[in-house]
Design goal:
There is one protein chain. Helix content is about 30%, strand content about 15%. It is of the alpha/beta class. The strands form 2 sheets. Strands 2, 4, 5, 6, 7, 8, 9, 10, 11 and 12 form a 10-stranded mixed sheet that branches. The protein has a two-stranded antiparallel sheet with strand order 1-3.
Length: about 300
């Protein structure tokens, strides 16, 4: 997703991908013709997402956040947009929030005798620092297994650069949304477990929800937003995200989230491989069969 590390660290930007509170959703996917329906594929993953996507994030109201952050959301009772074709996403809809929330730092644990790093939680303010410490302490690391709803832009983009420099594999377990997608897209190899989902949306700095002088500082930082958007889009393009998915990311409001399953990502040209929970390779037919059986 990111075109490479520049000579200087980017300016302190508003973060993306703070997680909303546990949603109430009513999804009514429209079936496609044939035996396996998109409804089954999506609904088989939605339950997992609802249980896992927002776990580990405790919203806390504050007038002095560590960084300006993305607008949090609480999904409304309106139903998600029904997919019309296999490659259409499911949209979890939320409500704009006027309060600010912080992103907790993810938990990181070395597994598989130092060959893999398990990451669970948000891309918090210390994410890049913590990741660098793990890479330094474990030179044999080859893979990152991640479950994350996203977080702050600066540490996320810096972590993406680390992943690219080390040629790491990134495997998504359960979900990877917003800023987390940069980490996945930056990997030398991208892996996705069959029931995992990728989540895209635009970011919103929520400047007007901040007290002065943070509000004025946030407005100033917005001037550098194009640099952030350029880096994020570059990582996505590098991973094979087509223009349709890039438009989906920028066109999905920050309070919503567009969910994409493995078959939907493949249908839009994203370059990745599917693996089961033990790491064994799965074909596209294997993934569809797995999701169909799980949805029964």
């Amino acid at each position: 997703m990111e075109a490479g590390q520049g000579p200087e660290s980017p300016p302190r930007l508003p973060p993306i991908g703070t997680q909303p509170a546990r949603p109430r959703i009513t999804a009514k996917p429209a079936p496609r013709s044939g035996g396996l329906t998109l409804g089954k594929l999506v609904m088989g993953t939605i339950a997992l997402l609802v249980l896992a996507y927002f776990i580990g994030k405790q919203r806390s109201r504050t007038s002095t956040p560590a960084e300006p952050e993305v607008e949090a959301s609480t999904p409304a009772s309106a139903p998600a947009r029904a997919p019309q074709a296999r490659s259409d996403p499911t949209i979890l809809r939320g409500e704009k929030s006027t309060t600010l929330s912080t992103v907790d730092d993810a938990r990181m644990q070395v597994i598989e005798q130092g060959r893999a790093l398990r990451i669970e939680g948000g891309v918090g303010a210390r994410f890049a620092t913590d990741l660098q410490a793990q890479l330094d302490a474990n030179p044999g690391l080859q893979r990152i297994d991640i479950t994350s709803g996203g977080g702050y832009a600066n540490p996320g983009l810096e972590a993406a650069r680390m992943i690219r420099r080390r040629n790491l594999i990134v495997r998504v377990h359960s979900h990877c949304a917003s800023m987390c997608v940069a980490l996945w897209a930056a990997a030398a190899q991208r892996q996705l477990e069959p029931d995992a989902v990728i989540g895209l949306h635009a970011w919103n700095a929520q400047c007007e929800a901040m007290p002065s002088p943070q509000r004025e500082e946030c407005r100033y930082q917005i001037q550098f937003a194009t640099a952030h958007d350029s880096s994020y889009s570059a990582w996505l393009r590098d991973a094979g995200f087509n223009q349709r998915l890039l438009d989906l990311q920028t066109g999905t409001a920050s309070e919503n989230i567009a969910l994409l399953t493995a078959p939907q990502l493949w249908a839009n040209g994203v370059d990745f491989s599917a693996v089961d929970h033990s790491g064994a390779a799965m074909s596209r037919a294997d993934v569809e069969q797995f999701l169909a059986l799980r949805a029964r």
